[in-house]
Amino acid sequence: MTVLVVGSGGREHALALAISHDPGVAAVHIAPGNPGTTAIGTNHPVDICDPDAVARLATETGANLVVIGPEAPLVAGVADAVRAAGIACFGPSAAAAQLEGSKAFAKQIMAEAGVPTAGHRVCHSQQELAAAFDEFGAPYVVKHDGLAAGKGVLVTNDRQAALDHGAGADQVVVEEYLDGPEASLFVITDGIHALALQPAQDFKRVGDGDAGPNTGGMGAYTPLPWLAPGTVDDVMASVVAPTLARMRELGIPFAGLLYVGLAITSAGPKVVEFNARFGDPETEAVLPLLRSPLGQVLYAAATGTLAEIGPLDFDDRAAVCVVLAAQGYPESPHKGGRIALPADTDRVHVIHAGTALDETGQMVAAGGRVLVVVGTGSGLAEARAAVYDQIAEIDFPTGFCRSDIASKVI
Ligand code: AMP
Ligand code: GLY
Fold first, then answer.
1. Which residue's alpha carbon is nearest to atom 5 within ligand 1?
2. CA 400 from centroid of its chain's CA atoms
């Protein structure tokens, strides 16, 4: 099978790598890919939010399966166009991707499906905002309705800051604050059947000790030793099954990756958010432990035959990944900083998230999150040591990382 992976970040590099390890996969193409994915397959420059261009590329490369990484092309209808061209596509339709594309839509589906989640109000004015803040109290949780690349959500005790965050947008969702550790659960689904991957935890704040603003994620680890046994089965029954059923009832079945962001509260797991794609950087931690052939599993989900695939098989090890970001991230990352990886590339497991080659062939930073370094080991302590040992061998003077990923859990 030939697979085309769409996207250019760390998640897509990690997906392409795992797919390339599937013995059923003969060739991998990446659109547009990055300097890291050239070691796995062929990169193709394309505007990934142009549905016709992606469908054309899928036909030209002879792809049997297209896997869409980021949310923007999903919301733009790229999966619909690929399927219309007669090619299997892992990724929801534009209509179903509204589970991520609109916070208000997601909350409505959760309410209709009886899914445990934070109480919420959809607000269109300062008066409605103030009333919702009075109702739920502090800390205030304010979310812009549409896609915002991790910048749309503010959680704060500062009421004025919360009002200001809501002021710019047409429609915002105010939520009850959920207390408790967070877990990310990836669910592969064909719209009816669903298979859970091993849960992970990511670190959203930019600084050590969870200081500073939210980011796309600064690191992740898996498994979660603190998560009660049975939690995944519980979430599959209380969240995933009713959500998929409600989407089918509405005539917009959700097939692809349902990312369930959870808060494990004293009253049980509650949904913080849905995303319509693999999470980043959790993907970089989870996929290295997956033993099942990823290309074949995603193909089954894309063709409505997931029932024929047994439960997913995971290595009984642990993984920790740490993001190397460009100074200034998330507000204004410094681009162009030089990066040197160890000459012996076998010694590092590095995923490229925001790199480029300059005119001289020098690798430089080209995004906010630049590299994701992955360590595995027989337990979290060994995996964590492995990741920070590798980081010490990477020369990236204008980069920084959190030094406390997975430290508390160990
Ligand atoms: P979201 O994009 O909706 O996942 O929100 C980003 C981050 O904000 C989450 O990962 C949480 O850390 C935090 N957050 C979102 N909603 C809530 C909530 N209702 N209660 C507490 N924290 C939240
Ligand atoms: N790691 C969080 C996300 O992908 O949204």
1. 153
2. 21
